Amino acid sequence: MNHKNSEKLYQKGLKHLVGAVNSPVRAFASVGGNPLFIKKAKGSKIVDVDANKYIDYVLSYGPMILGHRHKKVEKAIKKALKNGYTFGASTKNEIKLAKIVCDAFTGIDKVRFVNSGTEAVLSALRLARAYTGKDKIIKFSGCYHGHSDALLVAAGSGLATLSLPGSKGVPEGAVKNTLIANYNDIDSVKAHFDKHDDIAGVIIEPIAGNMGVVLPQENFLKELKDYLHSKNALLIIDEVMTGFRSKFGGAQEVLGVEADITCLGKVIGGGFPVGAYGARNEIMEMVAPLGGMYQAGTLSGNPIAMAAGIATLTELKKQNPYQKFEEVALWLENTLLEKANKHNIDIVVNRFGSMINPFFTKGKVTNFEEAQQSDTEKFAVFFWEMINSGIFLPPSQFEAWFLSSSLSEKDLEKTEKAIDKAMKAVAKNLK
Ligand SMILES: *Cc1c(COP(=O)(O)O)cnc(C)c1O
After folding, report:
1. What's the main place this protein lives (predicted)?
2. What's the whole-number average pLDDT of the chain?
3. How many angstroms does the Cα of residue 119 sit away from the middle of ligand 1?
4. Ligand 1 centroid to 332 CA: how many Å?
5. What's residue 397's pLDDT?
6. How many whole angstroms from 121 Cα to the centroid of ligand 1?
7. How far apart are CA 192 and CA 203, in angstroms?
8. Is the model's pLDDT at 158 over the cut of 70?
9. Among 3.40.190.10, 3.40.50.2300, 3.40.640.10, 3.20.20.60, what is the CATH number of 71-319?
């Protein structure tokens, strides 16, 4: 497989773009080599600028749950385009998408649309602070909630427990109200409450997807919520990745727990920049223009993005692919384990709904520390072998693979062969 045109564009891109990318994970930094440039995509496939075709398990990191360019979504976008692109005034479709969201999440009476997951989360934190009148927020080590200052902590294991900024340019003052707890460890949350009386709430990925897929232990979220309520603090569930992905009502529907504030993104925009945060009326009424918490956006509720979101969620509800996702993910887990075993490679596979990934490690992965034990070099070998077999995966050991409802039997057969070959390459590389 040749990547000549990608290589050329990469060299060219370096001049006027930072690292030739607009988001660092696209840079392939942790697997080596240069990033691929994509030309187009359709259904379950994505095509690079060298005309190599891949089965896509990245799906733009989640949004393209129906596969690329679903015809109903495309039709809705084209129709919306004819009416204009943005008005700085309300449109009917904003109400329609809001109703879909409120119907899907029992804990959401009202919603506010924004333009990214990052924006949804930072607004949700402001809202939790506005509502409780308290300043501190607890986040879990290894969870990613976008790139706002206050949440760029514990992105790396060494800094995790110290509450030091995980990025240059983030002042210590910006993270001084961010406390770090360990995923699946309620005592680490309680320890903070023992020390501080000004904690507004806890933010969590209900299924962690940004340290690889890590599942909450039985009842962890329920226990967490009960505890928080006993302390007059809020549970903020970041469903930017999991919303509409594992179930129409998100991870909350699967886990049977309702957030005080929910953050959404990715799938909700059907491939366009949409984020959202929502909650019960009494909480949302804090937000301007009803209340004193300010939050605004020139392009928020953008008509094209709303049309894409409505069409995607309507089609998703109709297809109801969640049982199929479960079956495909189980098959993929078994295939990964079987091929790894065949070639004597240690792996752990974690999955939830349509999110799955193998960790090249032994034992189990229930938190960031255990995820960090993975052998990223093995992953890099595996990754490139998969690319060469026409399978597009996220270029990091610590990212979830995503399933789309457009995957075919043939795609899965091809995936199985590729996994066998890639595990063999990993084994060979060890010798
Ligand atoms: C992707 C993601 C975000 C950030 O969303 P952006 O649209 O990239 O700003 C926040 N939280 C979670 C859980 C995510 O997966």
Report:
1. cytoplasm
2. 95
3. 9
4. 25
5. 92
6. 8
7. 14
8. no
9. 3.40.640.10
Interval 172-217: pLDDT, tens: 888 899 999 999 999 999 999 999 999 999 999 999 999 999 999 9
Domain 4-65+321-430 belongs to what topology?
Aspartate Aminotransferase, domain 1 (3.90.1150)
Residue 270 pLDDT > 90? yes
CA of 343 to the centre of ligand 1 (A): 35
| Per-residue CA distances from 392 to 375, 377, 386 (Å) | 20, 18, 7
The two domains 4-65+321-430 and 71-319 share their CATH topology (first three levels equal): no
Question: Per the residue annotation, which of 45, 134, 139, 266 is the catalytic one?
Answer: 266
**Structure confidence at residue 163 (pLDDT):** 54
Q: Is 12 one of the catalytic residues?
A: no
pTM for this model (two decimals): 0.96
CA angle 211, 34, 68 (to 5 degrees): 65
Ligand 1 atom closest to 117 (CA)? 5
| Residues 139/211, Cβ–Cβ less than 8 Å | no
Tokens 């998969």 belong to 386
* Mutate-to-test residue for ligand 1 from 144, 149, 240, highest number of ligand atoms within 8 A of CB: 240
- Which residue among 48, 56, 238, 260 is the active-site one? 238
Pocket of ligand 1 (CB under 6 A): 116-118, 121, 144-146, 205, 209-210, 238, 240-241, 265, 275
What are the structural domain ranges in the chain?
4-65+321-430, 71-319
pLDDT at residue 391 tops 60 = yes
205 backbone dihedrals φ, ψ, rounded to 5°: -85, 120
- For ligand 1, atom 10, the nearest C-alpha belongs to 145
| Distance in angstroms (rounded) separating the CA atoms of residues 344 and 313 | 42
Report how far apart, in Å, the C-alpha atoms of 356 and of each of 20, 46, 219, 385, 389 are. 28, 19, 21, 19, 19
